Amino acid sequence: MPLHDEPFTPDDVEWRPVSDRLATGRRLIAAACCLVVAIVVALVAVLTSTAWVYALLLLPVVALGWSSWLFGRQVRATGYAEREDDLLVRRGVMFRSIVVVPYGRMQFVDVQAGPLARLLGYSAVQLHTASPGTDAHIDGLVPDEAARLRDRLASRGEARLAGL
Length: 164
Fold this sequence. Notes:
InterPro entries: YdbS-like_PH (IPR005182). By secondary structure, this protein is of the alpha+beta class. The protein contains four helices and seven strands, in the order E-H-H-E-E-E-E-H-E-E-H.
């Protein structure tokens, strides 16, 4: 393993992936945005009677293809791991990050899901600590796993806090 990967691959960690439904949700949002851009470009082309403007329709098509590929990679690179004393959250392919949140530092845990997330069957867990720099969120959890993780993190946080 290359030396530059060591901070992002601790030895004692079994990473749990998030649901691919997150990538689907992001792709649907990108498709809607690209459709709006394509409609605007088509309207401009029709109203101005300029043929070369139709070539601009390639931009939303290329953007949609690139974003679909990118969202798949981003979701596959996202994961979390529960250890004895802390929770690790990783994300990123090109710009990697790993956040370590000690259970004793957690103040509360939120579970959130917007309309599209509820329709596709995923949610997000947000961990809040005293320092905003150590807050973490895990997007793309199926609701059962989000509820299990919320309850587990809350109980571990209370147990660690009581031990201080």
